[in-house]
Amino acid sequence: MTTIIEANAVRKRFGRNEVLRGTTLAIPRGAIVGLVGTNGAGKSTLIKCLLGLLRPDSGTVQLFGEDSWTLSAESKGRLGYVPQIVQLYPWMKVDQVVRYVAAFYPHWDGAWSNELLDRWELPRDHRVGPLSPGQMQKLGLVLALGHRPDLLILDEPVAALDPVARREFLRAMMEVTNDAQHTVLFSTHITSDLERVASHVALLRDGQIALFEELDAVKDRVKRLRIRAAENLPANFHVRGALRVTVDGANALAAVTDLDDRMVDELSKTWHAEVSVEDLNLEDIFLELHHVAR
Amino acid sequence: MSRGESAGSMMRTPLWRRLRAVMLAYRTRPLTWVALVVYLLAIAGVVHNLHDPRPPFEAMLEGATPEARLSVEAERVTWESQRRLSVAPRERTPSPRLYFAPPQVAQSFNRDKKILPKDVRTVSILDQEYIPDDFWQPGRYPRVEAVINFGPPLQPEIIQKLLETYPLKSLILHRNDVMTIDDFRQLAQAESLEELSLADAKVLSDPAEMEWPRSLRSLTLSVYHPLPLARLQEWRQLPQLKSLILDIPADLRSKVLTSEIIAELDQFPQRPTLFLGDTREADGESALAMQPLFQKLAVRPRRVPKVRLTAAMYAYLLLLIPTAFGIYQLATQSLQPLMILAPGTRRPHQAFAAACWIAGSLVAVLLLMICGVQWSAALALAASGVLSYIVLQGLMQHSRGIEQVGFAHPVIVVLPLMLIGIVFGLGAALLHFYPPIGGEIDWFLRGRYPFAAVSVALAGPVAAAILLRKIVRIQRAAQEVGVGQVPMSALDWGGWNTAAAPIVARKFDTALRVNPVMRARERRIEAALNHGPALTRSQRVRVWMCGVHAHPLDITFMVTLIGLLQFVVFQGLRNNAGEFRLERTALITPAIQILMMFLMLPLMSLWIRRRWMPQESLYPLSRSDWRRDWYAVQAYMLVPIPVMLTVLAMLDWWLGGVINPSRLEMFWGGLAIVAAIIATWALSLIVVTLRTSSLLIMGTVVVAIFLTVITLGMLSRAWPGLDDAAEAAFKSPSAPLVAVILVAALLAALFFWARQRWSRWEVGRLS
Prior knowledge:
- The complex is a heterodimer.
- Helix content of chain A is about 35%, strand content about 30%.
- Chain A is an alpha/beta fold.
- In chain A, strand 9 and strand 10 form a beta hairpin.
- In chain A, helix 4 (about 110-120) packs antiparallel against helix 5 (about 135-145).
- Chain B is mostly helical.
- Chain B contains 33 helices and 11 strands.
- A 9-stranded parallel beta sheet of chain B has the order 2-3-4-5-6-7-8-9-10. A two-stranded antiparallel sheet of chain B has the order 1-11.
- The longest helix of chain B has about 30 residues, at about 450-480.
- The chains are: A alpha/beta, B mainly alpha.
- The interface between A and B is large, with 39 and 43 residues.
């Protein structure tokens, strides 16, 4: 499978603060990757390095097989980007801004951008300055999607959107990328959105990619065990492969990876306990994984 | 104490604890230290510039040899001309000026200017023997209107020929002790003569009847002998006499200006201003002492020290730093939810702001008093300065908040308090155009309007305190409508129509939207965007220009408008004063403005645009193409400079060469413009590509400016011959070649640097 984004051992430091510490990531064509991580984990820095807006101190970054720092015009023409805070010329009207950006793209899809403007009820004859943050975000998305990019990179794109607009955005994104030829990387804190659209999830922790897997695989792999023992469990109660264990008398909760039936049987026999297996949603998985980091 | 107040005070920690916490917050803020360093540097620079005591010329002259006396006299004249401001209306000596003197001397004065006889407006005679014969041909020098004689006394027949040949408006005769009453009779026939300056005219003491031109507006005389009343009776008959300038040594004044003379002068129906001059006097104090003797006439020194005027300006400008810092901090803090939610937060912040202003005011007052400004005037200036900066910054707050709180109306009430500060603080800037205002400013600074000064000094702080409270409320109101930050972006023209924009900006924006500039801008944007995909560089530049917040054409329009406004103001001043030189300032001032505005344009544009650059850098262009596009856009914005300067040069030519620079001046002027363009271009690149925080950049620029000024000042002080050496270097034949090579080398270095810089520049840091 063709790799669209390839970051290899990327390091980036701002003064004394090393944000990226050998980040390695390879995203195949057609993947929709949700990039998650705590605040300050370095998601925006990684995205900027991937886009060539920041230059890594060491390591390599390639987009479409090219060094992202010296990306060619052709590759940039296949790229769409929405920053965390969309900044646009406030004196221009919405329609003018769209035409302004379109002027730089030889293959701009005017009908598509107009459809998006209508769908998100963006007033074409209004000036950009007084638009609300949510409207600005929508306009930023129109500008990023208007040329139907092969690769779409979004830095927390829905943070300022209302639920309706978020759904609309996800729908539009799916429309653009439903042919498995388009690739999307987006950072977000809203894991429910990520679950809805992402094919892969990447967890950035301590400046490194701690996890990069298909979403379904992650959800299959991480489970929660609810243990009810006959007697009180010891304080050092341990479960093999556990991300975290919480003990409360005879009860215990354990988040585990790579669970198999033998482990459940073993726990059950050893501690004369009832052991039930529960699925975790992505937010819980995210929390459990981060707990390990602490 | 009510129950509510009691409960409220119980909810608060003691004021000293809150103050300590607030001070800690400000102390640990880098901006505080940057502001403090800039302020201290500014104070150091001002003190350094103002420190310039008058050497004891009189003591040096006593007992000096004749040669040494000449040297001291020359030094005194130079010192006087540099440190004293002549506030009497200027002699009317319009440019271009031609010197009649021995060839070498004339060449030295005329330099290598080629002045055509038809353009000459002022003739300076250094030696009447060298007046060319063709000067007496009617029509040969059609525009001559002023004559100055620096040389030996002009022969009566020469004066007669002058008056017969030319309709002179101004005649300045520095050595005319041979003039007779008959000569004056001839002089009186000059119907257009408005200004007459006579030095050492002994005939003035003659009690016999003399005649004077009826059109005289300004009369300058050196008087060493008692004036007969007959003279005054004659001057009394001059209907347009507005300025009577008498150079009388202070120790002779009581003999010259007897009580009869004073009574007579005081009854002049024209009410001319009486200017009393004495080069030996340090600050014209004895002239001021004469004022009480007059009931109706205003008496002013002919020259006043520049130091008080410049100190007033510096003190006024210096106040900006602590005032702006205090109010900006207050406004920022007032927007924070903590200010509203945490009990008792507001007062310590207000106290901090007030402390900044009080400290700033004390520094300003101290500086002014050291420079000889009377205490009440110093206090008034400081109070007015602080108030005007508070008002200015208050008006820059959120318009919605201002409307709710009603900030604008009190501002109208306190306008007179502010005007005193503005006029007297910035008056030094007006001196170039209208020197007489210097006399009025100096009059005020000496404490001659104590009631007005004390009123302002008392009312200013009260008004400031009221407005200070309102500013906090404005922020609160702004927060209620969802404004989350203090708009310090006066240059952010695009945001002027938003609710968060300053009220002034919103009003201005509304005015602009209905004017042709905005409509033209819309048309330009539409024309650029309707073209379709921008495939070539020229097409792209047109599209990029849509993102320039102030298009060069807009600026051109504004400059033209300002130029017209200036012209009207100049005309107004000219009609009132009639003695200052309009012609050069009318052209040179707009030229400098055009240069400065256009030079700043790329810098401002890049600075404002930096927020959008990360997104724009991802448009489908290679890094090098993108860089070249930006160079082209920068260059496009500088195109109006040569165009406008060419227009001005043509206008100058059409007006008959009123600026009339020499070739050398043109070369250096041109080179300076090229160097300035390069420097601006480099600065704009530095500002944008270096990124870091705006604060650091602004701080660096300010510090660099102050450091440069201080360093240059110290250098010239340590090496008195520096100016002469620099002038000699400029005039050396090889200087142009060296300068061209240096500029070319600078240009090459900058290109190389920029190329390197851009290849490593991280656009992502701008967002």
